[in-house]
Specification:
This protein is an all-alpha fold and 153 residues long. Among the domains are: 41 residues; 53 residues. α4 crosses α5. The protein starts with a helix and ends in a 10-residue tail after the last helix. The relative contact order is 0.06.
């Protein structure tokens, strides 16, 4: 997204006779973005973004903040060690608050917007012994003669 000041500079550089690639290098963006901007200017006659109509969401910033607080309270109440809740329960919480039903995928997008991350369960092999792994790592570090990068766990 090119800001308004840069768009004005792009028009100025175009009137000076610079190529789209030169302008893109000066503006720090891709040549196709400059091409689209100039095509928009030739078609509409303006470099400003127009108002886009659409259905307003019932999930305003205030509603999302309230949902985040409610979510954290309910998740802490259900889990002693960590704060988590499944998508279905959060979907029910949204439906109670906004009286709108959202798809599971949309609820996941809302959770991402609220800075929550998804926990995916990982299986562990039955032969995986953490003590043996730690011993192997220590021995590997001691016996390594090469310049190998490791990550301390």
């Amino acid at each position: 997204m090119i800001n308004l000041q840069t768009r004005e500079l792009v028009l100025k550089w175009t009137n000076q006779g610079k190529t789209q690639q030169e302008i893109a290098d000066l503006a720090g963006c891709h040549q196709s973005a400059i091409s689209r901007l100039l095509a928009k200017y030739n078609k509409i006659g303006s470099i400003k973004n127009r108002f886009r109509s659409g259905r307003p969401t019932p999930l305003t910033k205030e509603t999302l903040a309230r949902l985040k607080g409610d979510f954290a309270q309910k998740a802490r109440a259900t889990n002693k060690n960590f704060c988590s809740i499944d998508t279905k329960k959060f979907s029910q919480l949204i439906e109670q608050t906004t009286h709108k039903k959202y798809s599971t995928r949309h609820v996941e997008r809302i959770l991402r917007k609220l800075d929550f991350s998804r926990i995916a369960p990982r299986s562990q092999h039955i032969k995986n012994d953490p003590e043996k792994v730690a011993v192997f790592r220590q021995e590997f570090k001691k016996n390594s003669k090469r310049n190998i990068w490791i990550m301390k766990l």
